[in-house]
Amino acid sequence: MFLTEDLVLKSFFFCFGAIIGSFLNVCIVRMPHEKSIVWPGSHCVHCQALIPWYDNIPLLSCLILRGQCRFCHKRISSRYFLVEFLTGSFFVFFYHYYHLNWVLLPYLVLLCGLIVATFIDIEHRIIPDEISLGGIVVGLIFSVMIPGMHDFSLTSLWSGRIFMRILYGALAFAALIEYLIDNKKKSEDQFEDLVIMIMVGIAIGIELLLSFFLPSLQTRTPEIAAHLLSLDASLIGFLSGGGLIYAMGLLGNWLFKKESMGGGDVKLLAMIGSFLGWQMALLTFFVAPFFGAVVGVIVKLRTKSSVIAYGPFLALASMICLFWGKSIMDWLLFNSLWGY
After folding, report:
1. Which one-letter DSSP state was computed for residue 100?
2. Region of residue 257 (left: phi > 0; alpha: psi -120 to 50; beta: else)
3. At how many degrees (to 10) do helices 154-181 and 278-303 cross?
4. Which residues of 45-73 are buried (b: 16+ CB within 10 A; e: fewer)?
5. What is residue 91's three-state secondary structure?
6. C-alpha–C-alpha distance, residues 173 and 244, integer Å
7. pLDDT tens string for the chain (340 positions)?
8. What is the largest CA-CA distance in the chain?
9. How far apart, in whole angstroms, are the C-alpha atoms of residue 243 and residue 240?
10. Among residues 79, 86, 77, which one has the least CA distance to residue 18?
């Protein structure tokens, strides 16, 4: 049996993905504790012994050592193997779907960010800003470089702008009411809110400039305009995704009289929107609760707690929307038109 080019490439992507997964494990372990992901080198979390290169081969070393440290013989978390295997498998799936297309690169980066965010959120109930805010910047940069990431047709952009501006008009009014009613936030919360408001203000300002100048650029320099249109679509996605889930959090706070949505989830959906655009961010917003509700009920029955990590469900929903979002939207549109 001869090896085909496709099989060789899939094998390469699996091995490369497993290697990336090994690095993602480092991020998952160290980021919540604000430790460097570069130094020191890989070491046992129990005895602190440095792990030699031959014990640090993704997947294989874990199998050979039977999931134990060579030096202290204590158990190594199965999460290391799981993350490496999942990352390698997803890399193969992404390659199978997109082939060697430029859009493959940003979507693999998005995948890596979501894997790290998922496992950290499950264990620590936080999503590091390095992943979410950094991911927003990376998503915007990729969108400028690779216009194929977004649908920037006239209908999509204009409907996205209208939706985003109505959303932020409502949010501005709600924020004003909240400020007038309760002006007792801690100074660190006020500082974080100020940073986010500045980021959002800059993004809205850039989007307004793009919407004003792009029509003339499309007629004079269509090649450059395509890259800027993609940036515009990314900005609308970032603002719509973050604004939507922030609005849901405000509503939950008002209904339940306690914090119902973490800031990390807001920034995570904003990141997803910067990569996938406003329509897929909107669909992710509605798909995620289906998974979250099922797990939430199970957790409530088992532990009597109503608190769950929501980041993993946003990540799962975004991956579903990335691959099948257009089919889902077409199905919803067909059923709504025909009354089914």
Report:
1. S
2. left
3. 50
4. eeeeeebeeebeebbebbeeeeeebebee
5. helix
6. 15
7. 567 888 999 999 999 999 999 999 999 999 999 888 888 888 888 788 888 888 889 999 999 888 888 888 888 889 999 999 999 999 999 999 999 999 999 999 999 999 999 999 999 999 999 999 999 999 999 999 999 999 888 889 999 999 999 999 988 888 777 666 665 555 555 666 677 788 888 999 999 999 988 888 888 888 899 999 999 999 999 999 999 998 988 888 777 777 767 789 999 999 999 999 999 999 999 999 998 888 877 876 777 766 788 999 999 999 999 999 999 988 887 665 555 5
8. 73
9. 5
10. 86
Place of tokens 């999931």: 67
**End-to-end C-alpha distance for the chain, whole angstroms:** 50
Residue written as tokens 């090896």? 3
Question: What is the pTM assigned to this prediction?
Answer: 0.91
Six-digit token pair at 75? 């158990």
